[in-house]
Amino acid sequence: MSLAMTRPNGGQTALLTLLRARTFVALILVFGFFAVQAPNFLTPENMVIITKHVALNAFLAIGMTFVIITGGIDLSVGSTVGLSAMVAGGLVLYGIDPGFGLMDLGWSIQFNTLEIAGLTCLVGIFIGAVNGWLITRAGVAPFIATLGTMYIARGAALLSSEGRTFPNLSGNVDYGSQSFAWIGSGAILGVPFPIWALAVVAALAAYASRRTTLGRYIYAVGGNERGAALSGVRVNRVKMAVYVFSGLCASIVGLIIASQLQASHPATGESFEMNAIAAAVLGGTSMSGGRGRVGGTLIGAFVIGILSDGLIMMGVSAFWQTVIKGVVIIAAVVVDQAQSRLQARVALAQEAQAGR
């Protein structure tokens, strides 16, 4: 192979740089388009609303990012959101039936706001653990395992209220649950609490992915699972951890939505998994595993959020919005594949040039 054939040219390098920065470029283009075309898009009130919407998707997308990096997928997050919202609503309104017919006599186990939040998060952790067990111990493919739990969780949400809404989740002063609404609607220093919560989770996730042993193991499993296992990485524990984290993120979203609306419905979270996957892939997470960053996922979540809210403000049909999101997901995967191929060619050329 000649030197002319192996030396990476400036065009390839520039194109690779552009592909790596595609999420940020997409964010600028989408933001600029709606700033011009959508009325009142740039108002402070609308920016706060968009950020709150983005926060919900970003929670799911961060959890999904770790799952995809390991080479898996989690289709159950939307249903986990719905079940978690119903659990939170049920705990606020009714507490837990102690059995023995005591609830018919007006006796029940009641919880304060912090306890309700903790129990709701346990729902997501449990579903994530079930997904992890099915994949690592039962040998079920991630797509099938999480598809099954998606239906189970959605069915459980419907059964919890026979398809009805749990309304008026204002809490009860006597039980210390009167602050439940603050989780979704409260603010610290003028910034909504869900945004603070997202900032904390995102910072911890980014730190864990880059600065901890578990983070290195996650990338190792996604890059070469067999090689990671031969190197002493406990692959099953790593996979279990990422699915549990994904379930936890989903339960947090369900808790926030129930708190914001002060009501919970079993259909909450439908198709949320698609937005999460779109944000992760658009943010540079490779569907083949081994590559992805929390920062890129956050930008991807902003792109999806701005796109959704901007289309609504422009009066675009919800049906067309679904079509556009599908196109975005396909385009993101195509671009990711193009980046992988170009990156491999540039790396090969650089190695060949260094060998001379």
From TrEMBL:
GO molecular function: transmembrane transporter activity
InterPro entries attached to this UniProt entry: ABC_transp_permease (IPR001851)
Membrane topology: Multi-pass membrane protein
Compartmental location: Cell membrane
Residues spanning the signal sequence: none
TM stretches of this protein: 21-42, 54-73, 80-96, 116-134, 141-160, 180-207, 240-259, 294-312
Keyword set, alphabetical order: Cell inner membrane, Cell membrane, Membrane, Transmembrane, Transmembrane helix, Transport
Keyword Ligase among record annotations: no
One Pfam family, short name: BPD_transp_2
Keyword Amino-acid biosynthesis: no
Annotated GO CC locations: plasma membrane
Protein's recorded name: ABC transporter permease
Species whose genome carries this gene: Stagnihabitans tardus
